[in-house]
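Weekly modeling sync, notes
Attendees: S.R. (lead), two postdocs, one rotation student

Agenda item 3: backlog of single-chain predictions. S.R. asked that every request posted to the team notebook include the full sequence so nobody has to chase files. The rotation student volunteered to paste the first one in as an example of the format we agreed on. Action items at the bottom.

Example entry:
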Amino acid sequence: MKNTLEILQYEKLKKLIEKHVQTSYGKEKLEKLKPVFDIKKAESSYAIQNKFFSYFIKWGSITLDDIYISNVIEESYISILDEKQLKKIGDFLHQLNQIENQFLECDRELYEEQLNFDMPFHLFGEITKCIDDHGFLKDTASAHLFNIRKEKKAVSQSINRILKNMMHSRLKEIVIDTTIFLKRTRFTLLLKPNFKEFISGRIIDVGKSGGLFVEPDVVYNLNNQLEDLTSKEELERRRILKNLTQMVRDNINRLKYNEQKIAQLDMYLAKFFYSKHLPECEIIFKEKPIFYAKSAKHPILASIKEDTKPVDIDLKSNNSLIITGPNTGGKTVFLKTIGLTILSVFSVIPVNAREVEIGNFDNVFAVIGDEQDIFESLSGFSSKIESFKKSYEQATKNSIILLDEIGSGTSPDEGESVAYAIIKKTQEKCTVCATTHYKRLAYLLQSKGFPLAAFEFDTETLLPTYKLSYDKVGRSYGIDILKSLKIEKEIIELASEYYLKNETIMSQLEKELQKTIELYQKKKNELDKIKRQYRELIEKEKEQKSKLLRELEEEHLKKKEEYEELLKQLQLEISNVMRTKNTSKAHKRINEIKEKSKEIFELKREKEEKNRELNEGCLIEFRGEKGKLIKLKNKKAIIEIEGKLLEVPVHLLKKSNKEERKNEIKVNSPKSSTTFELILIGKRRDEAQFELVRFIDSLVLDNIKHARIVHGFGNGILKDMVRETLKELPHIKSFRPAPPQEGGDGATIVELK
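Predicted structure, as returned to the notebook:
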């Protein structure tokens, strides 16, 4: 049975990156790549990766040579490395040195934080000194080797000079080839068999043409000397290679560390090249297991088809989503897109989306496909249920399970029941996204709070649009798909006839349900609008409070400064008295300071005393107008002047001893246990609206059915605001102007549902 990574084609996703890998180290690292479900690690890894991407964009990408030294390192454990192997290590270190220099020049901080190669400069220097660009030991590898090769060259030149002179003089008639041949470490001439008539020498070898490779006696000793020098050269060569091999062994850990760094750099480069074909994506990491993606595409499908349609994935506000729609409409691809995108994030692979918000998932499970498992003797239905069982048992509250057509493969009624139970219980345990063709199941789950989405189908072209719409139940369009596949006409007609007979009642119920859903959505939108207004009023109130506090603070500072100034003056006068002893003048000055202090400190006291004189029902004066105090509330007072109710600051009122005028109109109504009153007179429009909404909310919570809103006559601003707001509130049954004895058009009677 396939695991989730196989089902979601995770290895194919890695193949898209492998195209851009430059080294064997990068390939090995990519092969081992697996998702690590650690949200903190993923976030920090993306931050580092983005730094490298920014570096490549600013300074250009890096071309890496595939210099693989792992096998050479292993060989160094058991034998002496030769010149070619040492050259490979030297080339590897040379590449490290070039990369290091480039980073240090462009972005030292990034290099020191993330790469910081551990360069064995001594080893690099010795290899460079001893091995040339062609992989041969240099003459200058050691002084002894230099002297041996110098002497060897001189002997070789002497032998060549002697043999050439012989070829061009007395041996001219018997020489088969004018080349000097090195046979069995001896320099020889190729002569005819009768050579002994001309010179004495040893036969070293026989040529294919019948000629003899002869070493003349005159060069015998020189050849012996050359052999001795060659043996000494080999001994010195082995000594040098042995020393270099030992240096490699001493630096094995450093070399392996650098191999890992090259592999990591190669992966950053491969992912960078891969991301060039993707949109720029912002990834937001959260603690809770949520998932949201804007304009997401299936990465493998998008690499094959350029016109792949993007979809929005919303598992943010709810931990479940039910997908409906036609076959071949994109439902299964949608599930795989969710799974692959999550796996990409936890593998630090660039995602094919414009925005991603992801939480702390600990695993992804995919129950997709209905292949029979012939080895386990399972049907398609049983195989899928078995796969679900394993996933469900392993899942935690931070997991996500993707279910594709769960319940299919058995009778529709039983399958629908199985699907309902599985989806419902899975949603209680963890995040779930499921596809289904069962419309009744979709509506039932929607009534349980499951969000819905549907892939659309173009009935004119008979082709899927791959467009996903939320809050909608889609049709399967099975008969329309038959038409698109050009099935025999009689089969299509018979299927249509049977479908219509069985679907009539269901269609009616579906229409009624859709109307209910639309009405619910409309009410929800209205409620959201009221909530927005409520929040705006709260914000305005906060601003007003902040402004008032600032003003009070400024006034406090001003009074404090005045007090400090008076204190300084007082101290100065005391000093003058002490110095001049002129007490009469000092008393006069102190009395002046005392009068000033009264203005500062006794003003508040006077106001408090004046306020204590005021009580409900007494006569008052406000800005030259006479009236009656109806109610005291903290530092505010509700007063009645000429039949109008006003709310004013208490310190602006003055008690009046004159009798109340007989023609004043009273707008006071007796309160009952079921009637409540809100007085808005004297408030600003936005402040009054805030108070009104809050008042209605409190009535609803207390199950109060009747209330009176007192807004006064004035210029009609408060009255219009009250009645416009009441129209928008959902809990208002009706409202009307108050009767004359309760305030007439200066008040509004409200009845709640």
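Discussion: group reviewed the output briefly. The chain has a mean pLDDT of 84.
Action items: rotation student to repeat for the remaining queue; S.R. to check formatting next week.
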